[in-house]
Amino acid sequence: MIPLGLCSVVAIAVLAERLWFYSKVGREQGRVVEEILRVDPPKSEALLAACCDSDAPIARVINAGMAQGNPPSLAAAERQGADEARRLEGWLPAVDAVVTLAPLLGLLGTIIGMMQSFKAFDISGSGAPHMVTGGIAQALITTAAGLVIAVVAFVGYTWCRHVMERELHRTEQVVGDVLERLVSP
Questions:
Q1: How far, in Å, are 10, 11, 54, 142, 177 from residue 74 at the CA level?
Q2: What distance in Å separates the CA atoms of residue 74 and residue 183, rounded to the nearest whole number?
């Protein structure tokens, strides 16, 4: 149960951190998008001013693309976009590992518990079947705990992936539109 407890702590910590991070990123992305949309027609100086003091992925990608001069560098923006994707992902792979690992640890605990129950039954003889059934019932708790941890971690992981992909899509759409308008005459 100790490894399962550690798995649950890791999953909860990462998911809580991602909740906080995504809420902050979502607000900042929205603010930057509003400022970018106010700049019409798009001018490099006005876009840089809208993005310069922001920590939003959109702002960093636009800044990276425009830092290369005029016309903006789409390759530099794509490289920064890949960095932003990794930043948005954060420690989510650890939660993905918990989703896989927790049920396996639960099954391992059950198997070890059942082995101990049968060993106790063997030592005491066939006169105490309650030792086996009680031990097996107790051993199944680890399987249930592993499955509960995996289900909760999976739901949180799926939600975080959805939010991450939504923010990446929004970044790609806005940055692509802005840089395309800056490049075209």
A1: 37, 36, 20, 51, 11
A2: 10
What is the reported pLDDT for 126?
64
- Residues 138 and 54 sit within 8 Å (Cβ to Cβ): no
Q: pLDDT tens digit string along 68-86?
A: 777 778 888 899 999 999 9
Instruction: Report the C-alpha gap between 158 and 152 in whole angstroms.
Output: 10
Q: What is the pLDDT of residue 139?
A: 84
**What is the structure's pLDDT at 22?**
96
> Domain ranges in the chain?
2-183
131, 133, 134, 137 alpha-carbon torsion, rounded to 10°: 150
| Residue labelled with tokens 């650890």 | 94
Residues of the chain with pLDDT under 50: none
Report the chain's C-alpha Rg in angstroms.
26
67's tokens: 């830092």
Spatial separation of the C-alpha atoms in residues 76 and 59, rounded to whole Å: 13
Question: Reduced to 3 states, what is the DSSP secondary structure of residue 55?
Answer: coil
Q: What is the model's pTM?
A: 0.85
